[in-house]
Design brief:
This protein is about 45% helix and about 20% strand. The chain is α/β, with parallel strands linked by helices. The longest helix has 15 residues, at about 15-25. The chain starts with a strand and ends in an 8-residue tail after the last helix.
C-alpha cells in the first residue's frame, strides 16, 4: 500500500511533535510538519499532501485569509482539510463541510485513535473485515 501523506500545520512545537508522532507511529502517515499556515500553503506545492490537518488558532495576522487560501488549494487539488481545535464540538460535520473542511478533531485528542479519526473523516480508512 502506498504511504499516505499529511501536512500538519500546528504552531505549538510540542503539540506538533505529539501529533506528528501519533500520525507516523500509530497510523503510518508520512507527516510534513509546518509551524504556520503561510508556510503550510508554500509546502502544499512542493509536498503535494494527501490531506491537511490544521490548527486554526494561531497568532498569524491574516489567519482567516490564509485559511481561505488553503481551502482554495484544497478545492483545486482535491485535498481534504481537517481542523484540530478545542472548539470542534461547536459545529456538526455537515456545518464543517459547508465551511470547506472535511471535518474536525477535538482537543484534547486521543493519541491512540487520532490516525483512525483522520482517516475516517477523509474517507481513507480501509473497511475492517
Amino acid at each position: 500500500m502506498p504511504s499516505k501523506s499529511i501536512l500538519l500545520i500546528e504552531h505549538e512545537v510540542s503539540l506538533r511533535d505529539v501529533l506528528g508522532d501519533c500520525l507516523t507511529e500509530l497510523g503510518g502517515w508520512e507527516v510534513t510538519p509546518s509551524e504556520s499556515i503561510l508556510e503550510g500553503i508554500r509546502l502544499c506545492e512542493s509536498k503535494r499532501p494527501d490531506a491537511i490537518l490544521v490548527d486554526a488558532s494561531t497568532a498569524e495576522n491574516d489567519a482567516l485569509i490564509l485559511i481561505e487560501q488553503l481551502k482554495q488549494y484544497s478545492v483545486e487539488q482535491a485535498v481534504p482539510i481537517l481542523l484540530i481545535s478545542s472548539r470542534a464540538n461547536w459545529f456538526t460535520l455537515s456545518e464543517f463541510r459547508q465551511m470547506g473542511f472535511s471535518g474536525a478533531i477535538g482537543k484534547p485528542f486521543n493519541p491512540a485513535t487520532l490516525s483512525a479519526q483522520v482517516s475516517r473523516l477523509i474517507s481513507l480508512e480501509e473497511p475492517t473485515s
